[in-house]
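Dear colleagues,

As part of the handover before I leave the project, I'm documenting each prediction I ran so the next person doesn't have to rerun anything. This entry is a single chain, and its sequence is reproduced below.
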Amino acid sequence: MQMRIGFDVSQTGCLKAGCGYFADGLIRHLAEIDSENEYILYPTFGDGYWDPDWPDSTVQINKPNFRRGLGHHSYEDLRAFWTKPPADLESRLGQPDIVHANNFYCPVGLKHARLVYTLYDLAFLEYPDFTTEANRLICFNGVFHASLYADMIIAVSEYSRSHFLEIFPHYPPDRVVVVYGGSRFTRREDLAKPKNLAQLQPGQFWLNVGTLEPRKNHRRLLQAYARLKTHVGETFPLVLAGGKGWLMDDLDQLIERLELRQDIILLGYVDDTTLQWLYQNCFAFVYPSLFEGFGLPVLEAMNLGAPVIASNASALPEIIGSAGILVEPNDEVCIFRAMLALLCGEINPQELRARSILRAQQFSWEHTAWRVLDAYHAVVKKNKKGESVSASQT
């Protein structure tokens, strides 16, 4: 049966982070494998996220079975529409058979369309102090409504699936499907060094990638790095690549207090070409995040052959397997010792590079797209209560 799928691409703009990368990678690969079903892409979706550049920045697919759907011209229009959806909501959305929500917002009031909801993580419950009250409320409302109204949930890891079912035990477990993401990068030997990285030498810098927010644990990373520098005298610079998030206004003060001003390179948000060069050429990728629903930067780093030091918490061990060094994220000494072991050759960086590449080959966006397409077929065979539809109804 042919399906009409409404797909949220609201966070796929030029400053996309985790949610946006997942939606972007998924829809691009669905376009590669599916020429039969119709897709409507929603560039503005929900009342919690607004990209003023959405007409130009959000993903567009130039294929006959893809078209752009409803978009709002202002944040006020967006909030008015999604806060109190109109009675003809599904008509305004293009009469989809499925609506796939990807940015934590969960629509309510769908009468015909099956609702598929991407679940990333429940970090806002585990670490409520690590985000703003506004963001925490947006995330909680979205996941709570998904537990009530979603016809199927796409969890990005087994960890996220288990955590969700622990918090919301009323939700049917058989309607939570685990679908891993993939890396958008393919190794290139001809990749030139971007001009803005002139100060970096291949193989001679530590790398961390992620939005500057408390959950990413930059403070303990900086303290571990300072301890490493004190122990060995001199070491490679530490590069932090990621946009400014929240609750990290004291980062510069911490760098000054640790006397690391000459050692830390803050790049801010970087483009994909710059990011790929960093992954391919770092001495090691260090990611002691306190909580991850998946950990896309880790997978991307492994895919491009970076030795990885990462947290042993949440979903990260599930993604890394035995390919990297796992550390206790709350223990700066543990992070320091892992960095020292790699720097001094106690652990062979080349061996970790080989393990990274091998492990990353187990994840691919093409496989992800097929898994999601199978989930779409399964959910349209269920009614709005999750019960199988009889053959006469299909």
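The chain has a mean pLDDT of 94. The chain has 15 helices and 13 strands.

All the best with the project,
I.
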